[in-house]
């Protein structure tokens, strides 16, 4: 996707569909297309943006004029992997958008649920990868190829 200069802009588990043969496919490209056509802004309520604040990179939540990028998709991918691995949406303890935005301002990341991401080699590797995806400095987040390599390495050691 990113090799074709396409930014999704709304990555989350609800937008990942799995085919009958086990192939994951991204859906809901409407928002990425809309953002190219017009200057759609984040609303003050995630309800108007399908609740996607939980997956949004801090630079999207805190910028006066947010711009979706490959790096903001990487942040959202990290949140999506967190959701898939833990079975919880990011910041599941937060009921209001304001609380999520305050956490973004402070640089507070989701808590590690040790019952699902164990304190062992595999769990620690996955947690490190998630933290790399969530780096505050967008330019230091891993590339899609780097994430794939880490996941292949993770699976091969399983």
UniProtKB/TrEMBL annotation:
GO terms for cellular component: cytoplasm. GO terms for biological process: signal transduction. InterPro entries: Kinase-like_dom_sf, Prot_kinase_dom, Ser-Thr/Tyr_kinase_cat_dom, Ser_Thr_protein_kinase. GO terms for molecular function: ATP binding; protein kinase activity. PROSITE patterns: PROTEIN_KINASE_DOM (PS50011). Pfam families: PK_Tyr_Ser-Thr. Residues 1-157 form the Protein kinase domain. This is Protein kinase domain-containing protein.
